[in-house]
Amino acid sequence: MRFIWPQALWLLLFVPALVAAYLYALRRRKRAAIHYASLMLVRGSLGRGQALRRHLPPAIFLVAMSAAIFAIARPSAVMLLPSDYLTLILAMDVSRSMQATDVEPDRISAAQAAAKSFIEDLPRNVRLGIVSFAGTALQVQTPTENRDDMIAAIDRFQLQRGTATGSGLILSLAMLFPDAGIDLESMVYDHEFSRFGRRGRPLERQREEAKKAPKQDFKPVAPGSYTSGAIVLLSDGRRTTGPDPMEAAKMAAERGVRVFTVGFGTAEGANIGFGGWSFFARLDEPTLKAIAKATGGEYFHAGTAEDLKKIYASLSSKFALERRETEVSALFVAASLVLVLLAAALSLAWFNRGSG
Questions:
Q1: pLDDT tens-digit readout, 197-215
Q2: How far is the C-alpha of 50 from the C-alpha of 287, rounded, in Å?
Q3: Against a cut of 0.90, is the pTM above it?
Q4: Count of domains in the chain?
Q5: DSSP single-letter state for residue 10
Q6: Alpha helices of 33-155 — where are they, by DSSP H?
C-alpha cells in the first residue's frame, strides 16, 4: 500500500495528544473522587465491567480518528478488479510448419478452432485485433468488438514460408499504440520483400523522411504495467527470418505490455513436406518462455488441440480480471464512520443519564 498524499500522515501525531488528554481527564476525575466519604462506595457503585465500558467507546473513537487520517492521505493498493476496457492482439503463426499433422486434424485447423472458442469466451469489454506472421507479419483484423469479424479473420489465414516471430510482435505493438510512431517499414518488412513502400515511393526515401521527422518523446515504463492491453502470441516453430524476437520483447516490456506466449505442437517436432521439399519443425520453447518472462506475461505449452482450448479458456478468464493500483480511501472513510457510530451507540447505551 502507498499513499498519494503521504504528508497528511503527520496528522497522526494528534493521536498521542488525544490519548494524553484522555489520561489527564481521568486523573482529574480521580482527584474529584476524594470528596466522597468513602472511595469503596464509589468503586462499588461502578460494579464489575464498568471500567471496560468506560474506556471502550473512547478507544473506538480514537481508532476511527486514525482511520479518517489514513483516508485523508489517500491510500492506494494493488487489487484484482474487473478490467474496464481491454485491447488484445492475437498474433498467430501461419508458417508452413502449421500444416503438420502431429495435432489432429492438423496444427493450423486445431489452432483456428481453439482461437474461435477463445473469441466466443472473451468478456464483452475486450476488443481483439488479429495479426498473422510467417515470412513477414500482416494485420488481419484491426481491434474490434465484433465477434463475427474476428472469426472471419481467423478463417482467412493462409500458410506461407518463414517464421518471423519478431515481426509479429512488433506489428502487434503498433496496433496497440497506433500513434507511437513505430517504424514498421524498417523493422518488420524485409528490404527485399518490396523495393517500394507506400504510394510507390522508394523505401530508402521513406526511411530518410522518417529520420528527419520530429521524434516523439518516449520514456520506458515498468514491464507489465500497461493495463489497457496485452498480446497473445502463438507459434509452433523457431524464428527463421525477421527481427530478433527478444528485441521485439524488449520493446513490449519498455511499454509495459505483457506478452502471453503459447507454444503449439509436440515436443518431438514434426517433418513437414510440400512441393518436393521437406524440413523438420521443432518448437522453440526457450525463446517463447524468455519473451513471456521479459514482459511480465506467462508461457503455456499446448501439445494437443484440447490443450490449446484449455489454455485459451484460461487466458480469457485472466483478461476478465486484472490487477491494478486503486485508491481505497473510501474504505477507510467507511470504517471511520462505522466506528464513530459504534462508539456513540455504546456511550448512549451504557451512560445515558436522561430521565425516563
A1: 444 444 455 446 555 555 5
A2: 70
A3: no
A4: 3
A5: G
A6: 39-46, 50-72, 107-121, 147-155
